[in-house]
Design a protein that fits this description.
The chain has about 220 residues and is mostly beta strands. The protein has one helix and eleven strands; from the N terminus they run ββββββαβββββ. It has an eight-stranded antiparallel barrel with strand order 1-4-5-7-8-9-10-11.
């Protein structure tokens, strides 16, 4: 899926009922930090401006969905692209988009013939076409965190998605041509039925958690 979200990814701005089950916090969805006062951190960041491209060898987009109100079924997408146009003077003015190939879904589940038929079923359920995410607003919530609002297009429909992102750090990597590399993590969740993905509702939940890890390389 060509996703700009799913995913995926990330604040590329500066830098996240059975008795008992319903009350327990969902994994990976800790309450986002409140927005910090502007005076708590500088607006500008000490990073080179320019275009940063996702390094697919150092990135992952994982999704989780509850199965029969029991365990969380987890899978990933293997083909992801993302680009960040970083404005270090004000990271909130940066631009982010990403794409994911839904046909690259990888559940690790094989059928009796040793084939990935279940993965192909999921790709069809997701609409088959690339999934895309385009950030429409990046709001700093702290020195190294941000809330990214954007448009997630999937299964022929487009609706808002909020990602809570954190900046993990920056480095010059000699193994990537001495390029500047930025690291980000992000998480969010959607109700899949909002995008018309309602299959298997009798045993699979509606809430889908998204967990993203990325490294982006300056071009």
């Amino acid at each position: 899926m060509r996703i700009a979200a799913l995913l995926v990814a990330l604040t590329l701005a500066a830098c996240a009922s059975v008795s008992g089950v319903a009350d327990a916090p969902a994994p990976f969805t800790a309450a986002p930090a409140p927005v910090a006062a502007e005076a708590d951190y500088p607006i500008a960041v000490d990073l080179p401006a320019g275009r940063y491209q996702l390094d697919p060898r150092h990135a992952s987009v994982i999704f989780r969905i509850r199965h029969m109100d029991l365990a969380w079924f987890t899978a990933r997408f293997d083909t992801i692209e993302a680009a960040l146009e970083l404005d270090p003077a004000d990271p909130a003015r940066s631009r982010l988009n990403a794409t994911i190939d839904p046909n690259s879904v990888n559940t690790g589940v094989l059928n009796a013939q040793g084939d990935r038929g279940f993965d192909r079923q999921i790709a069809r359920v997701l609409g088959g076409a690339p999934i895309s995410f385009t950030a429409t607003a990046i709001e700093r919530t702290g020195r190294n965190s941000a809330r990214i609002t954007g448009d997630l297009s999937m299964n022929g429909q487009t609706h808002p998605l909020i990602l809570h992102a954190s900046f993990a750090g920056a480095a010059i990597d000699p193994l990537r041509g001495g390029a500047q590399v930025l690291g980000f993590s992000a998480h969010g969740e959607i109700q899949r039925s909002q995008w018309g993905v309602t299959q298997w509702a009798s045993f699979a939940g509606d809430t889908v958690q998204i967990v993203i890890e990325t490294e982006l390389v300056r071009q």
